Amino acid sequence: MKNILLIVLSFFVLVNLSLANNSIESAKKEKIPINITSNKLIAQENIGLYTFIGNVVAKRKDATLYADKMDVYKDKNTGDVSKIVCIGNVVITQPNKLAKANEGIYELKDQKITLIGNAYVKSDKNVIKSDMIVYYLDKKYAVAQGSKNERVDVTIYPNKKQTSSQTKEKK
């Protein structure tokens, strides 16, 4: 069971990073407790798969993940988490930040988070909507991909800070 907590800790690295808040190393060092609730847990240690089913709610610090189902995969050789897949009504929240999708995948080896199907990311007022959003953690960049029927839709609001030239213009 303590392996499950380690696995879920890794998931919250996903939560924090998907909202561009923390690095993997700082999340590992913090050792902040995680609380997960679901209607059912199936722990298949022999194949390295932990499945949380039904109204999954995972909380760590100020981040909360909601999903219908969450599969956590462990590498058979190292015992480390290799991939986390959340399916159905995936929502990740933090103060002033929100991410939603039909499916969310965190691949640790590739340092990649993929939000698939009605992907939506909001930070303060700024919004990205797309069929798929991929965030590369180690390179700190994202790619949003539209579909045949829907293009990428981005809304960016200007910063509230005034530059020195804007201040001079007002005088």
UniProtKB/TrEMBL annotation:
Residues 35-140 form the Organic solvent tolerance-like N-terminal domain. InterPro entries: LPS_export_LptA, LptA, OstA-like_N. Transmembrane segments: none annotated. The keyword Nucleus does not apply. GO terms for biological process: lipopolysaccharide transport. Keywords: Periplasm, Signal, Transport. GO terms for cellular component: cell outer membrane; outer membrane-bounded periplasmic space. It comes from the Bacteria. The keyword Transport applies. GO terms for molecular function: glycolipid transfer activity; lipopolysaccharide binding. PANTHER family: LIPOPOLYSACCHARIDE EXPORT SYSTEM PROTEIN LPTA. This is OstA family protein. The lineage of its organism: Bacteria, Pseudomonadati, Campylobacterota, Desulfurellia, Desulfurellales.
